[in-house]
Prior knowledge:
Blueprint: H1 16-27, E1 36-42, E2 45-51, E3 60-64, E4 68-73, E5 94-99, E6 104-112, E7 115-122
Antiparallel strand pairs: 1-2, 2-7, 3-4, 4-5, 6-7
Amino acid sequence: MTKLSLGSHPYLLGFEQLERLLERSAKSGNEGYPPFNIEQTSPNSYRITLAVAGFSEDDLSITVEDRQLVIRGRQADGNAERVFLHRGIAARQFQRSFVLADGVEVGEAIIENGLLHVDLRRIEPEPVVQQVRITKG
């Protein structure tokens, strides 16, 4: 039996990238840190919220790399003179990745009360109708 992949279906031309996106999102880390929410704030906008208590703006970076939103956190080792008797607050680095569909753009990012909010918006493309001229060969 032959495996038929999404990108090789005869009626789906040029969708190889979709198959690569599905593979990449399946391989992204599923660890639970930091916890996050994704909410739809309007029919064409979304908000990703990450719990980043203890991280400052300088400890966080947000980039878009090849249609993938990547949020990284790394706390600087502040005061090395501090002696902890118990350390239960996580201060480890993290990376969270979210695959963005075509037409989804990253808006602003806001940090407040230990939560990082990243706003996304979907831009609706204008419908394009193209007339193809037929010539004699």
